[in-house]
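User: Please run a holo structure prediction.
Assistant: Happy to. Please share the sequence and the ligand.
User: Here you go; the ligand is nicotinamide-adenine-dinucleotide.
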Amino acid sequence: MLKGKTALVTGSTSGIGLGIAKSLAAQGANIVLNGFGDVEGPLAEIKALGVQVSYHGADMSKPTEIADMVQHAHTTFGSLDILVNNAGIQHVARIENFPVDRWDAILAINLSSAFHATRAALPTMLAKNWGRIINVASVHGLVASAEKSAYVAAKHGVVGLTKVTALENATTGVTCNAICPGWVLTPLVQKQVDAKAAALGVSNEQATKLLLGEKEPSLQFTTPEELGALAVFLCSSAANNVRGVAWNMDGGWTAQ
Ligand code: NAD
């Protein structure tokens, strides 16, 4: 379905981003990976799906590196058709104890990076009159939790940016939508499970059950594969008129 298209997924060396990159690659899209940590493993996983893959190590807190990464997609594959703004970090603390540098980093990586990448990617998408911009927001783009001020502010911002991007391009073939997962068991969430286990003196398994039980009625994690399937749908022609939505996949979290 996506043969001949190029997809750039930010923060795709791990977790949800890698899951989405693999789902798009399985549909035939060439992939630009981005993110820190192990790169060879994710590159091999995408290559095994029979598409071309490239890596750019832009730091999502740096606007000039983001612009360079979008340019890299164009020079490597000749186009950039699908942009998935996914990179994100978390820090958990009450506002009065929240380190200012963590606030700045979360706003830059989780929110501003989506603006910078979208700004750089839009002109050629508009010139081709086809494009898909998918912003990985969160249930925290729709509702709040205590001790996540920067994350909740950034993700609400991402949902707002999604709506503006969708509206500005509503008469074109370029759509923009947000995906809002509940809990997904990635390294980002494993850290929160570990912190809960340590704080309460309980096992990892008990901490996981408590974490899910507090917020997610299904008591199940959403998987990167399920989120990848949603991204594939948003890239399909069936989603031509899906514009500016914030689509939750959250086990009922925001239905409460
Ligand atoms: P993860 O920690 O597994 O992956 C994060 C990715 O972002 C990694 O590839 C990492 O290298 C990259 N990254 C971090 N800082 C970066 C930077 N400065 N520049 C470039 N890349 C950077 O986390 P995840 O859970 O897969 O999170 C992915 C996205 O999904 C985030 O935006 C997160 O907020 C969102 N999300 C996660 C959950 C969840 O439960 N895990 C729920 C809702 C939304």
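Residues 100-128 form the longest helix (29 residues).
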